[in-house]
């Protein structure tokens, strides 16, 4: 599918916006986006994908972690218009009730959450970590997940869940 924007599309864009084509959870959309809109705000307010959480809004907690072209990023730090043509995966795009992603199942099996606020970012970060193929040991997973904070302290169970999935894929 072409992501080219024709002159009719430009004419329909409000002044002060940038036409941006994104594939979000498998659905391609061209939107008029204000240049200062973060990916986090676009997902939560523009797309009603509220699984991605707004924690610190400064890239320090990881609650807003999503996957962009398979790599994990803090969506609060990324301007949406800079991602033209990118594929974004949020927690909603990983699995659904009745058809959970292996990481979602492992988080449930290992009781890897308490309040659940950080869980979507933890799971997206874990999937990015798995995509990177760098983590094989408890210490490596701990280090590579260190940008995702859990205020409830479920770190041991989170690491167990991630290692469970990594072990199943090895």
Automatic annotation (TrEMBL):
Domain annotation 2Fe-2S ferredoxin-type: ranges: 18-94
Cited InterPro entries: 2Fe-2S-bd, 2Fe-2S-bd_dom_sf, 2Fe-2S_ferredoxin-like_sf, 2Fe-2S_ferredoxin-type, 2Fe2S_fd_BS, Aldehyde_Oxdr_Iron-Sulfur, Beta-grasp_dom_sf
GO MF assignments: 2 iron, 2 sulfur cluster binding; metal ion binding; oxidoreductase activity, acting on the aldehyde or oxo group of donors
Pfam families: Fer2, Fer2_2
Keyword Plastid tagged: no
Alphabetical UniProt keywords: 2Fe-2S, Iron, Iron-sulfur, Metal-binding, Oxidoreductase
Protein name: Oxidoreductase
Source organism: Paracoccus sphaerophysae
UniProt lineage: Bacteria, Pseudomonadati, Pseudomonadota, Alphaproteobacteria, Rhodobacterales
């Amino acid at each position: 599918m072409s992501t080219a924007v024709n002159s009719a599309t430009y004419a329909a864009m409000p002044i002060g916006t940038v036409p941006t084509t994104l594939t979000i959870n498998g659905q391609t959309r061209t939107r008029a986006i204000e240049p200062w809109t973060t990916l986090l705000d676009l997902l939560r307010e523009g797309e009603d994908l509220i699984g991605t959480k707004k924690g610190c809004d400064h890239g320090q907690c990881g609650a807003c972690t999503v996957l962009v072209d398979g790599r994990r990023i803090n969506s609060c730090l990324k301007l949406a218009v800079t991602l033209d043509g990118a594929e974004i995966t949020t927690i909603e795009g990983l699995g659904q009730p009745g058809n959970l992603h292996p990481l979602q199942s492992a988080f449930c099996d290992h009781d890897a959450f308490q309040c659940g606020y950080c869980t979507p970012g933890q799971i997206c970060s874990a999937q990015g970590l798995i995509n990177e193929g760098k983590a094989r040991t408890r210490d490596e997973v701990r280090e590579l997940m260190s940008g995702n904070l859990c205020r409830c302290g479920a770190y041991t169970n989170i690491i167990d869940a991630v290692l469970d999935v990594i072990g199943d894929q090895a």
